[in-house]
Amino acid sequence: MSTPVATALRKLLPSKLPPSLSSHPGNLYQILSRYSKDGVGQRVHQTRWG
User: Which of 7, 17, 44, 48 has CB atoms 3.0–4.6 Å from 21's, for a disulfide?
Assistant: First the structure.
């Protein structure tokens, strides 16, 4: 069962998410390679860092 918030967010996002919004785990190099310019200048965050 979807909440109204989840439904609204799904409508706002494109049907095919860009690689930068992928929820698939990976090491630092795999994550940065999803961005343009191989992630140069990107800031990354791990959920376990809180």
Answer: 17
